[in-house]
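Trying the structure run again after the queue cleared.
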Amino acid sequence: MTQSSGWPDGPRGHPLLGHLPELRRDALGFLRHTRAAYGDVFPIRFGPREVLAVAEPAAAREVLVTKAASFRKGRGIQKMEPFLGTGLLTSEGEVWRRHRRLMQPAFHRAALEGMAGDIVRATEPLLGWLGEAARSGEPVNVASEMLHVTLRAVAAVLFGTALAEDDLRVVERELPPLLESTTNRVRSLVDWDLPTPARFREKAAERALDGIVNRIIRERRAAGGEGRDLLGMLLAARDEEGGGGLTDAELRDEVMTLFLAGHETTATLLTFLFLSLSRHPEARERAQAEVREVLGDRTPTAADTRHLPYLNACIQETLRLYPPAWLVPRQATRPVTVAGVPLAEGANVSVNIFLLQRSARYWPQPDAFMPERWLGQGRTPDAFMPFGAGARMCIGNHLALLEAALIAGLVLREYTLEVPDGGPTGLIAGVTLKPDGPVRAQVRRA
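Done. Tokens:
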């Protein structure tokens, strides 16, 4: 396939498969090598589909902020719609703007303050399990434990006490296969929807989750709707520009989106955080000392997290090195230029957050874990955007950071997680960024 007119040079690739073989083998290694050879803006091909990769702050800002009106969500995100419906992640245009207006107040920092207690309570089972592991000497699978705790946290923040333990067990059982099937659909080059056993399993999982979510929405609506959890705030939200509140179907789509976006990404962040702290014991000891000094034996609050500068620096540095949402795909809805490169209507562009945040041009020693770089030093604008940028920046960014700080602080206050031999060093770049192997840690009392 010939290169689009006016596009920069890039690697040749296979005539039919494009760069899929290299991307399947080692996506991040291939992308880093290509950036080194061709610069911060370069084309790659997924089979016949050409994509302009962007790893430069000014160009990223064009796509996500200044020229955002010329783009829609990319093809991969569009393929999540069968499960997520028309929630914030997948919707476009006026539907997205209305939902964002209605939902934004529920995600302001002040609104999240009251949810800290729910997150702390959701972390208590994890602390108990880590205590058992410390006594028995059995290693824990860090990624698995972080998935459990963040799922419980997002369920508590969404539903408060409305989600019974039996319901939570169903969510824990059914959400992972849906996440896996969604990932496979996003990565597939074809859009077939065949009646395979996997597809039947996916539909069964979706029905089970829909049954729980729709039942709780009906019950809360019948009871008057309001509450201090996110669902209560969304039920009470009214559009100041008219149009009333969210319908039950719209609430379902937003709840499913929050489950997906607020669960796995935060779990991945915490997994990489504990892995990084294990590799840098001096940073871990400093974070533990800060947590003990600030929290003492008290139950932490949202206000406490603002007095943990070093722990927050560790979290920010983890987000820089390992952004869970490492790629932001977009599709041009009209002719537009990015970094001087002409894009026709329908052209695909991806903002590569991973490459952007590991550029030696903007980050000294870009591959090193250096939390100190977040303690008062100046940084290049738009060289750090783990939650995206512009109007479509992740609405749950403050919630994710609050969750990460509370969960990490509670764990570090009581326990040390030691990953033997440094743990897995490779990365898997799927829909989210993950370690290329299990992260197993020995637990001991701090």
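The chain has a mean pLDDT of 89. Worth checking whether this holds up in the mutant runs.
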